[in-house]
Specification:
151 residues; D-tyrosyl-trna(Tyr) Deacylase, Chain: A; 3 helices; 24% helix
Length: 151
């Protein structure tokens, strides 16, 4: 699994010009699923995301996690995180999981991160054409790939 985290002051996802979900201070997380991903990949990403210390403490240093600041999380499915551009200029999506498998893993990710965070995690709609708005804070943008971390 891959996740692109952005520390945000606020973020929202809209579908057909209607806001589906919006959050305040916390993480906007774009999540992609590979065919080989398992529950261990999902759990690894969640553990890293919830303990990542990129939020400011009282001294202004990045020393707190999203849990410690009681931050919000918005998760959006994004198969394009697995774009393969090795040949030509048109991306191949062969490295992304098929939709049924990806949705199962995405739903698992949402349920587990909600449970671990201890409060609702908002999300986009899997497979929908979505528009994302955000105010990136910092900016702080972090790339996570479970296959790199589980080696």
């Amino acid at each position: 699994m891959r996740a692109l985290l952005q520390r945000v002051l606020s973020a929202s996802v809209s579908i057909d010009s209607t806001i589906n979900a919006n959050i305040g201070y916390g993480f906007l997380i774009l999540v992609g699923v590979a065919p080989s991903d398992t529950i261990q990949d999902c759990e690894y990403l969640i553990r890293k995301i919830l303990t990542l210390r990129v939020f400011k403490d009282e001294e202004g240093k990045m020393n707190k996690s999203v849990k410690e600041i009681d931050g919000d999380i918005l998760v959006v499915s994004q198969f394009t995180l697995f774009a393969d551009l090795r040949k030509g200029n048109r991306p191949s999506w062969q490295r992304a999981a098929p939709p049924i498998q990806a949705k199962e893993m995405y739903d698992l990710f949402l349920s587990k991160i909600t449970l671990e965070l201890g409060k609702p995690v908002l999300s986009g709609v899997f497979g929908a054409d979505m528009q994302i708005s955000l105010i990136n804070d910092g900016p702080v943008t972090i790339w996570l790939d479970s296959q790199e971390g589980l080696k």
